[in-house]
Structures are given as structure tokens and as C-alpha cells.
Amino acid sequence: MLNSLSIFEQAIRALPIDRPLTRQDLCVDSFLLQQDQGLSVYYSPIGEYINHSAKIVFIGITPGFEQMRIAYEEAADAFHHGATIEETSKIVKYSASFAGPMRRNLTMMLDELELNRLLKIPSTATLFHTDQELLHTTSILRHPVFYRDKNYTGHQPKIDRTPLLQHYAYEHFAAELNQLPHPVILVPFGRVVESTIRTLLHQGRIKKHTVLFGFPHPSGANGHRKRQFEENKDYLLKQLTSYFNI
After folding, report:
1. What percent of the chain has pLDDT over 90?
2. Over the stretch 57-109, which tens digit does the pLDDT of each residue have?
3. pTM above 0.90, yes or no
4. Any bridge partners for residue 3, and if so which?
5. Could you say which DSSP state residue 172 is in?
6. Taking Cα atoms as reference points, which of 104, 116, 99, 110 lies closest to residue 44?
7. 34 - beta bridge partners?
8. What is the reported pLDDT for 220?
9. How far is residue 126's CA from residue 117's CA, in Å, rounded to a whole number?
């Protein structure tokens, strides 16, 4: 299948590499995929690489602007240094996915569940570096979605009431999951992602995997994260031990 990054390669090569990129650089017509009722969907190279050897999948709602910015900066830099389309796709995936405090919160919780021990790695933080072959990262809305120029949070408008968002969540996302090995561990970030996965499972659109239902959204903005984790910890451990047949 043609990597869409090749379609946008020249536009990415034209981006400045001597300063941080801004919305004025990226939220432009040349990267715009679709618009409808206040929603804008922009291309991002973060969603291109699919790891067919993954054992665990981290799933967000949609890349926010910060992840989008990092993805474009990494892609522009990789092209500048002579990387191929395929190499650039992989570099972008692991550099930009859930970058920042979210990644730190995520790996702290997973290490507390001892997923690193079950995977026989030092820490789940290494999934983004030396143990990349075990991890695939994605979002139910693969490309950055903005509602009235702000990061889309999954609440307004709701995915199941919006044909544009339904198309990405129920068609594109489902197709991506079905390219992965079976079974894997799916880690949904928050209730919106959980609900979408439940719908896809109920409709038979995706294969059955071990899903860590009840895993808190690792965003620093989730003030209930620690309480939710403690309340659901035993259930999360039960799901993991079932997957590893412990």
C-alpha cells in the first residue's frame, strides 16, 4: 500500500528546519484533508508506520497540535538528512507519539502494573526506544482533528453522531487494527477510546484482543488519573495476567 507520506513529501521538505513550526506553518490548505461543521482534519506523518510485530498497542483519541508539530519537525529533519520514506515514517512514529508528560505518566502506570516484567524489558519507557519492535501507537482518529481550531477531545461533537469522524474511527482505525498481529494488548486512553473499541468489537469490525478497559487517560490534564488507576488496578492486573497466561 502506498505510504501517504510520499504525497506530502515535497510540502514537508519545504518546511523550515531552523525554528519550531507553528500553526501558521501546518494548519494550511496543503495539509488539510477534510472540513465539516467546525471540524478540520489535517494530514500528519505520525500515523504512517504500522508495526506488524507489535505485542502492545497504545491508542489515543487523535494527535493534538503538539504531537502534530513534533511529527512534522521530525519528518522535515529526517528528509533533510537523507532518510527514505519508510525510515522517516518509523522515526516520526516513535518520536512524536504521546510525547511529553503523557508518555511519562503512561509508562509509570504500566511499570506499576509490571508490564515491563511481563514483556521482559527494563521499563515500558523503552518501548519508545530500544524495544520499539514490541509497540504500535495509534489513535482512533489517525490524523489530527480540530474542532473550531482547538484540539478535538472526543466530546463535542460526539464521534457516533458525526459521519466524518465515524468514517475515520469505524473504517480507517478498524482497518489499521486488523493489520496487526493477533492477539495483542490494546491500551485505550480514556472512555471515548474505550467506547469506540467496544463498538467495533460488538459490530465484529475488529478481531478480539486483550483490552485494558479502565486504564486512565495518561494526560496531565486528567486530574482523576491517580484515583482511577488505584480503583481499577486489580482489574487491569487481572486482564494482563490473563493475556500472559499467568
Report:
1. 87
2. 999 999 999 999 999 999 999 999 999 999 999 999 999 998 888 999 999 99
3. yes
4. none
5. I
6. 99
7. 41
8. 87
9. 12
CA pair distance 129, 206, nearest whole angstrom = 28
Cβ within 8 Å of residue 56, ≥6 positions away:
115, 119, 127, 134, 135, 136, 184, 185, 187
CA–CA gap between residue 157 and residue 10 (Å, rounded): 33
Q: How far is CA 83 from CA 7, 45, 95, 195, 224, in A?
A: 16, 14, 15, 38, 41
Q: Could you read off the pLDDT of 210-243 as tens digits, one per residue? A: 999 999 999 988 889 999 999 999 999 999 988 9
Count the neighbouring beta carbons within 10 Å of the beta carbon of residue 189. 23
CB within 8 Å of 48: residues ≥ 6 apart = 3, 4, 5, 89, 92, 93
Dihedral angle of Cα 168, 51, 105, 166, to the nearest 10 degrees: 10
Return all residues near 12 (Cβ < 8 A) that are at least 6 apart.
5, 45, 72, 75, 76, 79
HEC string of 125-139 equals HHHHCCCHHHEEEEE
User: 102 is written with which cell numbers?
Assistant: 503523557
Q: Is 42 helix (H, G, I), strand (E, B) or coil?
A: strand
Residues in the chain: 246
Q: How far apart are CA 109 and CA 191, in angstroms?
A: 17
